[in-house]
Amino acid sequence: MAARKIAADTPELRERWGGWTFTEENRAKADWHIKKYPEGRQKSAVMPLLDLAQRQVGAETDTQGWLPLPVMEYVAEYLGMPIIRVLEVATFYTMYNLEPVGKFHVQVCGTTPCMLRGSDDIIAACKKRGMKAGHVSDDGLWSFTEVECMGNCATAPMVQINDDNYEDLTAERLDSVLDALAAGEQPKTGTQEPGRHTSEPAGGPTTLKDMVTENYDYRGEW
Ligand code: FES
Predict the structure, then answer these.
(1) What residues flank ligand 1, with Cβ below 6 Å?
(2) Which ligand 1 atom is at minimum distance from the Cα of 119?
């Protein structure tokens, strides 16, 4: 399970992130999220606003982004809610990074289906590149977290890297994905199994076959 501890509140942290604000573009997005909720319920937008904040910090640091305390304080103030309520949300969900991360945050699923299908090899391949839980690799490229099931058990083992999932992995397939990312390329996302489309059975689909190439409408046949 990933550690859910916020980064130490130091003078350096305050120096770097004190006075942080949304960009004009993100302020517009934040206000759009807030308007989705009834008057007086603006606090309900805390999750998308934390996500926006993390992405902006990511863009400013060329990393996946994280949430320094002054940034979370800004979000709390933006929504008129106590900082402790924001911290309750940010420390609960692993989608929020509470410490600096690398350009690519490799989250490896180590739960039973992935473990039975080889997640130990995936973790070993990550470690070979200098990835270690709670650390950013020396080249600034990689962060590593072992996480619980991410809902891709049918295509285990899998990892999530920033916003994308890579599935049906072997150590070699993961290496190819990581090499491509390090080279500034966008590798194919989803299953890495040759010939597999999404999560259909090995050997091809057995039901809804007309859906393979297009969004076929079966309703007339019911
Ligand atoms: S156990 Fe790994 S995605 Fe479900």
Answers:
(1) 109, 111, 113-114, 149-153, 156, 158
(2) 2
